C-alpha cells in the first residue's frame, strides 16, 4: 500500500526540551487526555508545564510540530522499555488528540489515523525504528499511564508493519507460573516493578477486549508467541 505524503505541518514550538543523550530507537504514542486540541497544544507549549512532544495529531488530521526531532522532548516521564530508562532521550513522542479516560475516551477517527499513519511511517523509516519499539505510553510507564488506551487501533498499524501484530495463530499456552510469566514479560520489554500494572498494560495493548490484570492461558500464549522470532498475527 502506497503511503500518502505527510500532511503539511503546523509549527507551534514548545520551549520544553533539552539535548538527547541517546540515539533515537523508539516511537512512543500518547493521547492528550485533555478536553480539546487547543488545551493540549497550549499546555505542551507552556514553559510552566514542563511537558512536550515532538508532534501532535488532531482529530481532524492536522499535524502540529512542537519539538525538533534532534531534541529530547519531555513526553514519557519516568519510563522504561527494553533496558532503556531514559526513554525521552531514545524516542520520538507523538500526542494524539483524544479526551482520554478522564474526559470521555472515544475511538480515534479515520481522519486522525489518516494523518498519523504517514507521520509514523516517515519517522520509522528515517530512524530505522523496529516494530517492537513502536509502543504506547502505557507500555513504557505501566504503573502511571493508560494511553493511548484500549481503543487505539494497533491492528491497523500492525497490518502496515508499523507495530507488532497481536498473535492470533497457532497459540499455545506454555503453562508458566505467574512468576514465569512476569520474567517473560520483563524479557519482552516491560518494567515489572508493579506486576499487576505491567499485566494490565500488556492486556491493554495485546488483548484489549479483556483488561482484568489476571494472568491466564490466553495472556501466556500471546506473550509466548511475541517472544518467538516471527510473531504470527493479523498481518
From TrEMBL:
UniProt GO molecular function: N-acetylmuramoyl-L-alanine amidase activity
Ranges of residues in domain N-acetylmuramoyl-L-alanine amidase: 12-149
Biological processes per GO annotation: cell wall organization; peptidoglycan catabolic process; peptidoglycan turnover
Family per similarity comment: Belongs to the N-acetylmuramoyl-L-alanine amidase 2 family.
Cross-referenced SUPFAM superfamilies: N-acetylmuramoyl-L-alanine amidase-like, PGBD-like
One of the Pfam families matching this protein, by short name: Amidase_2
Protein name: N-acetylmuramoyl-L-alanine amidase
EC number assigned by the record: 3.5.1.28
Amino acid at each position: 500500500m502506497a503511503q500518502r505524503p505527510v500532511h503539511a505541518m503546523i509549527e507551534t514550538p514548545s520551549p520544553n526540551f533539552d539535548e538527547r543523550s541517546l540515539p533515537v530507537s523508539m516511537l512512543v504514542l500518547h493521547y492528550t487526555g485533555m478536553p480539546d486540541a487547543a488545551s493540549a497544544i497550549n499546555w505542551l507549549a507552556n514553559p510552566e508545564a514542563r511537558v512536550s512532544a515532538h508532534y501532535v495529531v488532531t482529530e481532524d488530521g492536522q499535524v502540529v510540530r512542537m519539538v525538533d526531532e534532534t531534541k529530547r522532548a519531555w513526553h514519557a516521564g519516568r519510563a522504561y522499555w527494553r533496558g532503556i530508562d531514559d526513554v525521552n532521550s531514545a524516542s520520538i513522542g507523538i500526542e494524539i488528540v483524544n479526551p482520554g479516560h478522564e474526559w470521555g475516551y472515544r475511538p480515534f477517527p479515520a481522519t486522525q489515523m489518516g494523518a498519523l499513519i504517514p507521520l509514523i511511517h516517515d519517522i520509522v523509516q528515517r530512524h530505522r525504528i523496529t516494530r517492537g519499539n513502536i509502543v504506547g505510553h502505557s507500555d513504557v510507564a505501566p504503573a502511571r499511564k493508560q494511553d493511548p488506551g484500549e481503543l487505539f487501533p494497533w491492528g491497523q498499524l500492525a497490518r502496515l508493519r508499523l507495530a507488532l501484530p497481536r498473535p492470533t495463530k497457532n497459540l499455545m499456552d506454555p503453562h508458566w507460573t505467574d512468576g514465569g510469566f512476569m520474567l517473560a514479560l520483563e524479557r519482552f520489554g516491560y518494567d515489572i516493578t508493579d506486576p499487576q500494572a505491567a499485566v494490565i498494560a500488556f492486556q491493554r495493548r495485546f488483548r484489549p477486549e479483556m483488561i482484568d490484570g489476571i494472568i491466564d492461558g490466553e495472556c501466556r500464549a500471546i506473550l509466548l508467541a511475541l517472544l518467538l522470532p516471527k510473531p504470527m498475527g493479523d498481518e
